[in-house]
Amino acid sequence: VSYYSTCACLSDKTKYPTFFRTIPSDYYQAKALAALVKHFGWQWIGAIQSDNDYNITGIQWIGTDSWITPPVSDGLSVTQTKTKICTGNESLMNFQHVFFNVSQLRGSYTVYKAVYAVAHALHHLVFCEPVGGKAVRPCLNISEIKPIKVTDHLHKVNFTNHFGDNVFFDEKGDPPASYDIMNWQLIDGQAMTTFFSQVPKSVCSNVCPVGTRKSQIKGKPICCFDCIPCADGAIANSTGSTDCTFCPKEYWSNENKDRCILKTIEFLSYHEPLGTTITVVSLIGASLSLATMFVFIRYKYTPATIPGSTVAGKFGPAQQRIIVGSCTLIQIMICVVWLTLNPPFPDMVFRYSNTKIVLECNTGSDVAFYAVLGYIGILAVVCLVLAFLARKLPDNFNEAKFITFSMLIFCAVWITFIPAYVSSPGKFTVAVEIFAILSSAFGLLLSIFAPKCYIILIKPEKNTRKHVMGKI
After folding, report:
1. Distance between CA atoms of 430 and 13, rounded to whole angstroms?
2. CA distance 105 to 129
3. How far apart are CA 160 and CA 168, in angstroms?
4. pLDDT for the residue numbered 246
5. How big is the CA angle at 382 (ends 381 and 387), to the nearest 5 degrees?
6. Distances (CA, A) of 380 to 264, 268, 301, 405, 411
7. pLDDT of amino acid 59
8. Low pLDDT (below 70) residues in the chain
9. How far does CA 233 lie from the centroid of its chain?
10. What pLDDT, on a 0 to 100 scale, did the predictor assign at position 27?
11. Residues 279, 433: contact at Cβ < 8 Å?
12. Distance CA 300, CA 287 (A)
């Protein structure tokens, strides 16, 4: 019964039918070491082996047995001058041997189990009863003990020792595998086994945290890598990720790059200062337009509400309606074609910012959109030219002057609108468009209709035909 031989080759019963041991086979040791490495996540492991039967069958991954503990004699050698049969009254009280050194109990304990296993086998063989049985006298003479019978009874050994360990042998003569894990630390230049609450680390590179991915270091083992932060818009929500996953289009990565969060939705809202200001100004403009309409309806037969130019007399109501209707009809036709073929639609725009979704109205067809603006621009230019040519007509309320000034404002606003509209990002595009519309509308209202309302309401004495037709 061996207390120190661990080679897995000794479990071969065809070669070693009478071999038993109380120390586990290296077959289990390799599995235990693999489980230990896996449990603690160790990746930076040194493999050392020697070219002999011992290590060919059981490669040692980490220091084991005599590598990490003080050496123990591999056998009990006692030189005797003659063979002496034991009487059973021998004493080891004064016997000096390395096995009695209890500072290192690893080897001593396997010897202890080996001795007790043989003792239990002999007891059962001699008394025909296991230890603790009721047998009073031997059923077999000691001189009749045969090695083969001892071998048979060793196979049947099964008892619990004083330390609570169950001692028995399997069909290969091996005991149940159990190991003590020792943590050696270099303290003050001396190797010592101590107890630490922190698990020892054995990795080339620590596990990459969330928000990063592994990047293999060229020329190094696979367990050596750098941890590269995920790119913006990509996440890694688990440790040790090899790749980062890009977020869906409506989402963006958070600051730690471990979770996708919904992008901020941006649009021109009534509740923000810019939206509130534009709304208030629009309401003021609409109110002034309605007030002007009511004033003109109320005083529609006064000279101030009738065109003062003598040229205007050549164009009667019919001609005026035809001109206004035909120009408006062209605009209506352009808009109908636009809305039929490729109408505007609400759109989610992602190009302005990685962290925002801008809600805006997509024109659908840029050609139709700029056709509408272009037609309005042509009408404005024609009005400007005609008004400029008629600017020196002699009436006090010559509308050509006011139309010229209002068209200058209109053209200036819309000429500057185009580059501002194209370059403005997000919700400011809508704000620029609204600003252009409001500016041109206020320009027309203040330049053409405000002077008339001033005469009608503030200077009614000038609202006479004589004053209107006076020479400048």
Report:
1. 91
2. 31
3. 9
4. 93
5. 100
6. 40, 29, 29, 12, 7
7. 42
8. 47-88, 90, 92-93, 95-106, 133, 135-136, 185-186, 191, 193-197, 305-316, 391-399, 465-472
9. 9
10. 84
11. no
12. 19
Q: Is 387 exposed, middle or buried (0-12, 13-18, 19+ CB in 10 A)?
A: buried
Euclidean distance between the first and final Cα of the chain, in Å? 137
**Listed residue (272, 207, 215) closest to 238, CA to CA:** 207
Interatomic CA distance for residues 112 and 116, integer angstroms? 6
Spatial contact of 288 and 445, defined as CB atoms under 8 Å apart: yes
User: Which pLDDT belongs to residue 310?
Assistant: 52
pLDDT of residue 360: 82
pLDDT at 168: 93
pTM of the model: 0.50
Q: Name residue, tokens 């509408």.
A: 372
- CA separation for the pair 64, 179 (Å, rounded): 10
What tokens were used for 429?
Answer: 């595009």
Would you state the pLDDT for residue 419? 80
HEC secondary structure over the chain: CECCCCCHHHHCCCCCCCCCECCCCHHHHHHHHHHHHHHHCCCCCCCECCCCHHHHHCCECCCCHHHCCCCCCCCCCCCCCCCCCCCCCCCCCCCCCHHHCCCCHHHHHHHHHHHHHHHHHHHHHHHCCCCCCCCCCCCCCHHHCCHHHHHHHHHHCEEECCCCCEEECCCCCCCCCCCCCCCEEEECCEEEECCCCCCCCCCCCCCCCCCEEEEECCCCCCCCEEEEECCCCEECCCCCCCCCEECCCCEEECCCCCCEEECEEECCCCCCHHHHHHHHHHHHHHHHHHHHHHHHHHCCCCHHHCCCCCHHHHCCHHHHHHHHHHHHHHHHHHHHHHHHHCCCEEEEECCCCCCEEEEEEECCCHHHHHHHHHHHHHHHHHHHHHHHHCCCCCCCCCHHHHHHHHHHHHHHHHHHHHHHHHHCCCHHHHHHHHHHHHHHHHHHHHHHHHHHHHHHHCCHHHCCHHHHCCCC
